[in-house]
Amino acid sequence: MNIILLHPDDFIAADRVRLCGRRLQHIRSVQRAAVGDVLRVGRIDGRLGDGLVAALDDTRLEMTVELTRDPPAPAPLRLLLALPRPKALRRVLQCVAAMGVKDIVLVNTWRVEKSFWSSPALAPEALRQELLLGLEQGGDSVVPTLTLEPRFKPFVEDRLPQWSAGSRRLLAHPHATASCPRGVAEAATLAVGPEGGFIQYELDALVSAGFEAVTLGARPLRVEHAVAALLGRIL
To answer: What does R_g of the chain's alpha carbons equal in angstroms?
Structure first.
């Protein structure tokens, strides 16, 4: 936890917060804070700053906070991701939130297991929690926008062109001939398929929507590893 995210209901006064639960336990056992210490904090979807520990015991922590800094600039990249298995989804969401991606679409594809769409991992609060964990890691406070698209064709044909407008559209495909570009200077939209990749129909639809197929090389990667590698290379 590189930043302590403050929820609206944490505030007991305009400049004072009270924390309990997971964040309290982390501050006590990992950060080993004491009264008088200054911790990095950020209000969710707001500014960053410092919190001065004013009271601390087994049940609660109170801080006076000053929020004086803007959050880091968002990454100039949107992510279109075939819905991965739930355990991988948690890791991917934490990774992309930590790296500053602010617009994510989870889409259905032919190789996505139907059962994934009924997983408790897709509950709004579960998704939000993974994004918040990523923000804590990345020292950010702005929660990404995440959209679920359970129908591939209507999304790609009707909504994807506008969603990805004004960006360079990159399609991660292990059998592409072009290498994934490094340090892309313009806004980008990255499409990443499921384990096993997009089927040919899906590849053709994405190419028709303006995407260029690129690869990281000959070694197939799991989705969570591929996403991290692709973001690191593009950004």
So the answer is: 20
Provide the pLDDT for residue 84. Answer: 96
Residue 221 has pLDDT above 90, yes or no: no
Q: Which residue spans within the chain are E strands per DSSP? A: 4-6, 11-13, 16-19, 38-43, 48-56, 61-69, 77-82, 103-107, 145-149, 168-172, 188-192, 212-214
DSSP secondary structure letter of residue 175:
T
In the numeric block, which tokens belong to residue 19? 């924390």
Q: Where are the alpha helices (DSSP H) in 40-199?
A: 86-98, 124-138, 152-154, 160-163
Residue type, 67: L
Question: Do 135 and 38 form a contact (C-beta atoms < 8 A)?
Answer: no
Domains of the chain (ranges plus CATH)? 4-69 (2.40.240.20), 77-234 (3.40.1280.10)
Q: CA–CA separation, 37 vs 44, rounded Å?
A: 22
Residue whose structure tokens are 């969710």: 44
